[in-house]
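Progress narrative, work stream C.
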Amino acid sequence: MNGVFLIDNGLGFVIVLAIVLLFTKLFGLLFRKFGLPQVLGYIVSGIIVGPAIFGEFCGFSLLGFESDKYHCLFLLSGTEDESFFALGKDGLSIFAKIGVILIMFATGLETNIKELKNTGLAATLIACTGVAVPMVLGILISLPFGNIGLGTANIFRCVFIGAILTATSVAITVSVLKELGKINTKLGTTIVSAAIIDDVIGIIVLSIVTGIAKSGASDAVGGFAGFKATIYGTIIMIIVFFIVAIALGFGISKLFRWLEKKWPNTHRIPIFSLVVCFVYSWAAEEIFGVADITGAFLAGIILSTAHQSSEYTTKKIDVNTYMLFAPVFFANIGISSIDFSGINGSIILFAFLAVLMGLIGKIVGCGAVAKGFKYGWRESGIAGVGMMARGEVALIVTATAMNPELGTHALPAQFMIMTVLLILVSSILTPILLKVLYNKEPKSTGGDGTNGQELPVANAEQAEEPAPSAITDNSVSIGE
């Protein structure tokens, strides 16, 4: 045994949770103090307590796995036989899985479909372009890097890189727009709405890509599993999933409206909501071959139509999500998904190019559409910059792309550094560039055709409370 304490029982696992929660909170507060998303602090805390740095390069880590390269204080038990459950390693993965499902569920709960219908054509096209341009650029820059596992021989990995670059985090942009008093202007509302639609489209794209990738990685030979393993079968199952999920959603929405009238603001409503979330997640992955996070996200959107229930459910679920499961998910990325030992010059070069294309793709793509809707050059630049911030959705997409179930199509762990770098750079540049662009506006106008006046908008409430809520918003944190 290469650890002082073997984590193979429930009581031992409790100390692992204590360490993870302590370090995530400390580093989260530290990063927030410097104006950076707390989610980056959570990942760094996982890197610090895990074997990525101190284990691999110093020979000792606080938490670790079976390895002949280092010793650790707390050894997360593992097993070579995948048919057996190892509490240490697998327990942490289960907590992380629940965390990512709850994050996407909360994101869906905060997405109001009725309000999005009123956002207009501009926000929709900005979102579509904000997905398409970065994705195409991500695929194109991946093709020459066959030496690091990308290229034409691994086209699915190239598509995953593009999918990672599509994600948008609205929290940082919203905090800046609030500070500048521009959150309810026509342009500010368009940016917020476009960012939310961007995530919806991005999740759908991810579902399609992962579904097709799994079909290529599956060794099923017959029956229903064999049908799902074919590309045409995968596409059919994805379409059927959305049809069935949305059809059931009408009945579920009506049921929750009845529940909130009969038992308003009772704990049974959040509990029933969690049941819907977990069933949708399981069915999406196991029955239809769609990513589990898509099921959770769609469940949240469906329940968001019962407005009072969704608001009450969000408040209750956020406490557990952001106090326990979400920090474990992000810390687990640093503990088990980041591997510095495999990073070389080519990986670093590609990471910088990917970050550059991710930023340029949003600015050029979204800015061009805004210009097409007769915004000025400065306003179009604001629209592009406002869409370029990345956060937890990019991490979730990356973690999904690294799922071992994707087989040879799965991204290697070394590419997580690309996403972390993208979040870091975009989080620093977005506030700076937005403030610079807004400071250049003429004093006589609001810079977006509003003559400096805020507009009453249908989705002002959502603009002030962006999804997801607590983790990436530098001004808000549950439990503070």
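Work stream C, second folded protein:
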Amino acid sequence: MMNDMDRFDKNKEFEEYVKIAEKAEEERSGIEAESEYDTLDSEVDDEDYPYEVKNIRVEQKMITVFQIEHWMQNEILILQPEYQRNLVWDYKRKTALIESMMMKIPIPAFYLDENANGKKYVIDGMQRLSAIHEFMNDGFRLRKMQYLSSSCEKKTFSQLDIKFRSYIEDTVLTVNILDERCPQMVKFDVFRRVNTGGVPLNPQEIRNIMAQPKVRTLLKKMAGCEEFLSATNHKVKDIRMSAQELCLRYLTVRYAYDWEKREFVNYRGLLKMMDASVLRLNNRKEEELEAILKEFQNIMVQCEKVLRTMYFCKPGSNALNKSLFTAWTVVFANRKTESQKLDAYVDQIRKEYNILLEEDSEFYRSITSSTGTKKHIQFSIESVRSIVEGFL
């Protein structure tokens, strides 16, 4: 039985692992790591926003590989949508999967999302379907087989005996399809529940499942525009859509925060608000999205003038801080300031901001822990706002 000292050692070991993981995440993305806890709000209870069980529409079908391949060839099933990561299995894993099918070993279930046009997108099982599709189109040879090497080693699909080709084509797959009638917000939760693959999708990758192409394009343009890259010193990498998530975070708070009342409208917790923000952007017209991009580019220019070499970072850190980014962008989005007027006061604003960072412990806490809570988002915005409005 584990004693208290053992538990202490285990907890310390886990804490060290988390620190290492967060450090690695920062180095990859250039953005300060933020735990899931930091994005939660204790005042918001998921039970306040229940959905009817009858609204969860998941249809389970038993479909052969031959039928799945037919769907792919006719673009009924979209195998490589924009939101999926560019992760590829090595030949060992692909060979093992194909060999299992040839041996009639059942394969875990797949999850697809169906839209109003009947097209289906992969939620869970992307790498398996990719491997099957690639092999059936002679995309690779079987290598280092465990049981069937004597008859199938180094062969492509078309080179296999008809017996084994039939085994593969006749393999029955369990496919769970989220019906297009399923409410959009319900789908977000379902996606997270079934998202159990080897490298699960992160929240932004899940949101991009729900985003229309025009919204994906907007977020890509925001994260890739020269104004954003320059204002962040080219530090932020869009690895696993981390830069796009940062831009969506700005848009979410920008439109949810009532500038006049100095409070949020219908606050539901940052994660759910960002989910809902994608759906609202889906309903925007193309010209509205273009206006959003143009405004964002102007905001980035203003931020760079004020922050210069600080680049939304906390003192002593080289990683961009999401809370500082959100606070400055939301303030400048609401303060329509002419360039010449900003130029006249930029040094004074920067000086006051440095004092805020170095001397205000409450502000520092708001951008360091529980950063996605309503209280801390509001406090960080209003702190930056008070500086800017003191001069402009």
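The longest strand covers residues 58-64. No further action is required on this item.
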